[in-house]
Amino acid sequence: MEVQVSSQELVQDNRLLRCIQCGKCTGGCPVSTTSGLNVRQLLNEALLQPNLVFSPEGSELWQCTTCLTCSLRCPKGIKPLDVIIQIRGQLIESGRIQPTMRDALESVFLHGNPWGKPREKRTDWAADLQVKTAGVDAQLDLVYYVGCAAAYDPRVQKLAKAMVRVLGEAGVKFGLLGNEESCCGNEVRRMGEVGLFEELVESNCQLFKERGVRRLLTTSPHCFNVFKNEYSGFGGEICHYTQILWELIEEQRLSFSKELNWRVTYHDPCFLGKQNGIFDEPRWILEKIPGLELVEMDRNRERSLCCEGGGGRMWIEALIPQERLAEVRVKDAVDLEAEVLVTACPFCLLTLEDAVKATGNEERLRVLDLIEIVEAAI
Ligand code: SF4
Ligand code: SF4
Predict the structure, then answer these.
(1) What is the pLDDT of residues 86-102, one digit of tens each?
(2) Which domains does the chain have, with CATH numbers?
């Protein structure tokens, strides 16, 4: 069964009459050449036809990684990504989405995470660590919001453990939200599940208030983005961990005692760089590490290539066999003869590690998160 979406609503809500069909949105879209998704054409069809027709399970709209490039490049101030999210919302309402997506959303509703894991296991990763609980121990400098990937994925748990050690080393007084911490909703909103997203905003803001959160630190740029830009009810300060590390190094509370003689290159996560302008902090931290040589890939900072991990893509099957963008990214790093591909995002870490395996580069290239490098150097 196909779903009809009213073009009139899309045109009015997103002021699409301003579109001059210049194609800059499609030109910058990282998945346009591989997935059949053409944003310019989508908007043109919305302008010319009374209704648009989509197959909910198989629509190419699910291939969008929500990297935001189309919206940032439009000379007329149109936000094609908002159009995609609006249509995704109607596809979700039809109930005929891919089972992997449905399971992820159901799991967020039932257990507060998209990985199908029980809530009571959310802090198992910290069982052997002496970490305080926010709201129980007062006088904290900040609260560490771990996020679903770092709480449950065995690879990403290493980032959370590294964070605890680094913060402890710098003498930061911090606490966790414990098993009551819930999904931030960044991917939920981008998959189009607005109702569930609004519930998460309300319950998370309530939890932050109850626990007296004034400063919140995140592992993931996705959590950072949504708390900073889309949680109107939370009045506290939101920081990505790279900002906090920058501050700790500047204040000389964190220093490096080990030399890491590695040639590394840095992959800008879309939700940290393009979407929130944090390009300098990660590079500055890497440059402070003794022995480390930082080399840049051609596509860096604003022009960085998306790894395809965002916008719910972690739970969406790719429609067409294709060379994943993360594999292109790995080849870029190998061409530079980098030994380590560094990023600062759990989703980038997972997609890039998969790409290293898929391209048979395990012997030549390691993928590490910046917090792991910092931990290795202190
Ligand atoms: S960049 Fe903007 S004006 Fe140009 S085609 Fe895309 S939406 Fe239309
Ligand atoms: S958000 Fe990124 S992936 Fe999605 S349509 Fe825009 S440019 Fe393409």
Answers:
(1) 999 999 999 889 999 99
(2) 3-93 (1.10.1060.10), 110-247 (3.40.50), 255-377 (3.40.50.10700)
